[in-house]
Amino acid sequence: xxxxxxxxxxxxxxxxxxxxxxxxxxxxxxxxxxxxxxxxxxxxxxxxxxxxxxxxxxxxxxxxxxxxxxxxxxxxxxxxxxxxxxxxxxxxxxxxxxxxxxxxxxxxxxxxxxxxxxxxxxxxxxxxxxxxxxxxxxxxxxxxxxxxxxxxxxxxxxxxxxxxxxxxxxxxxxxxxxxxxxxxxxxxxxxxxxxxxxxxxxxxxxxxxxxxxxxxxxxxxxxxxxxxxxxxxxxxxxxxxxxxxxxxxxxxxxxxxxxxxxxxxxxxxxxxxxxxxxxxxxxxxxxxxxxxxxxxxxxxxxxxxxxxxxxxxxxxxxxxxxxxxxxxxxxxxxx
Length: 335
Fold this sequence. Notes:
With 335 residues, this protein is of the alpha/beta class. It has helices spanning 18-22, 27-36, 53-71, 78-89, 96-100, 117-128, 142-155, 182-200, 203-211, 243-250, 277-285, 305-334; strands spanning 3-9, 39-43, 46-52, 103-105, 111-113, 131-135, 161-166, 215-219, 231-235, 258-263, 291-295. α6 packs across α7 (142-155), α7 (142-155) crosses α8 and α10 (243-250) packs across α11 (277-285). It is globular, with a radius of gyration of 24 Å.
């Protein structure tokens, strides 16, 4: 591919400068050079980029986007740079600055921001619907963003409490043989939910909310017979519910409440042959107003970069295995 040289003269609004674009010791600049395999030379606000034509064009597009982020007051850091690269590489309809503009305020003004187009749609869906299903692989922020929205709703007095629910499949939901009270029995299974809340609430406030039942954590089996009003309810790991359990949970909805159901249909821990309520529910409720299904993908993985590669590798393997199985069945039919 032909080499190209592109010269840019960058304009920064008052109170901003090219230093923000370059990063500490030019770390951002070096990351861009490594990502696109280009050479970047900076003199004042003038930038010269050289390398393969396509790579130069991609680097120019990214730099223009980063300058826009800086000029509208979006603080640039290494995480934001990596997310911007990933968003632009995924050919998202939205630009990175449009996605980063969507955030959730939790404790002490801390802001949790959408990092992908899918996450932005997820946050907006929770704001606009009573019930939202979020389905996708590990690392896409399904539970974390739901917890952030719950804390925000609680702090804004939109709800009076947060109820966290999980099917405790590992113990068959028969917790009586375990020592301690209900909290002690289910605590190990609900720890991932606590981890998220610890980041959004001071530990003292979290413990106080638990003691006052403002935050309640319960296994799915204990939801039967209840009606929850004025609550933000999160059902986590919903792929491990049966169709009957899913129906039971959804009918617990009371006045003034909102519900988010999260799950990964590629990680079902139910006994073999038992259908997942999360898979079935889409066919039953997909056309009901006030209920929305959000499907997150490997493009929305925001954990370590290897997690996204792992998700893609498993998807490719499962597609290949499914293809082989289909070919076998077709061959048997022919024979």
